[in-house]
Amino acid sequence: MREYEKQETSTDKDGKVRTNRTRGSETVSSQKSPSPLYVADGDVKVGIDLDGATLHLRDGADRFEPYESNKSYTFFGVQFSSPSGVRTLGFKYREKIIPLGHPLYVAGEARQSAGNLRIGRPSEKGKPFIVSVKSEEEVTAGVEGKAKTQFYIGIALVVIGLAIALFVK
């Protein structure tokens, strides 16, 4: 992610020119490792096709690297710098990982592919496909928590709707 600082100049209604600096960020690159993923239990090794999976990963590297731009141009002995108004402050690198040898919880559909057993997105719509470094209990607790929250929000919206219907008459 690129973090930058932008200089913005504006004129107010009294004709005063104001210059402000604002910070922002933008994603420059987002990549997934092309390395194949397998789960193994003893002599059995099963590949996982991650396409379409909900991933619960561990945080890996998270660092910021400052960027020094010394871009200047020289014409006939006179040095100029780029007056673009946007200055790159640096780049933030963030990784999400599955540690080698870490147990995984995988919910998906097993199928034969070129003579090998693979787990992938279920063919039936609406079925979950989850690959997680969390345990089954942790994943289930998270899903149950979201369902309860949505249930209570639904009840609150019904109550608000009824109150509005009664008082708007």
Structure, described:
This protein has 169 residues and is α+β, with helices and mostly antiparallel strands. 19% of the residues lie in helices and 46% in strands. It has one helix spanning 136-167, and strands at 2-11, 17-26, 37-41, 44-48, 54-56, 58-66, 72-75, 78-81, 86-97, 105-107, 109-113, 116-120, 130-132. A four-stranded antiparallel sheet has the order 2-1-9-6, with no helix packed on it. The chain has a four-stranded mixed sheet with strand order 3-4-12-11, with no helix packed on it. A hairpin with a 5-residue loop joins strand 1 (2-11) and strand 2 (17-26). It is flat.
What keyword list fits this structure?
169 residues; alpha+beta; four-stranded antiparallel beta sheet; four-stranded mixed beta sheet; 1 helix
Question: How are the SSEs placed, and which strands pair?
Answer:
Elements: E1 2-11, E2 17-26, E3 37-41, E4 44-48, E5 54-56, E6 58-66, E7 72-75, E8 78-81, E9 86-97, E10 105-107, E11 109-113, E12 116-120, E13 130-132, H1 136-167
Parallel strand pairs: 4-12, 5-13
Antiparallel strand pairs: 1-2, 1-9, 3-4, 6-9, 7-8, 10-13, 11-12
Query: Could you list the spans in which at least 5 consecutive residues all have pLDDT below 50?
Result: none
Class by alpha and beta content: alpha+beta
**Cα Rg:** 27 Å
Major sheet, described briefly?
Answer: 4 strands, antiparallel
Strand order of the largest sheet: 2-1-9-6
Helix content: 10-25%
Summed up, the helix count is 1
Distance, first to last CA: 53 Å
Order of helices and strands: EEEEEEEEEEEEEH
Q: How many β strands by DSSP?
A: 13
Overall geometric form: flat
- Kindly report the average pLDDT value: 85
Give the percentage of residues in beta strands. over 45%
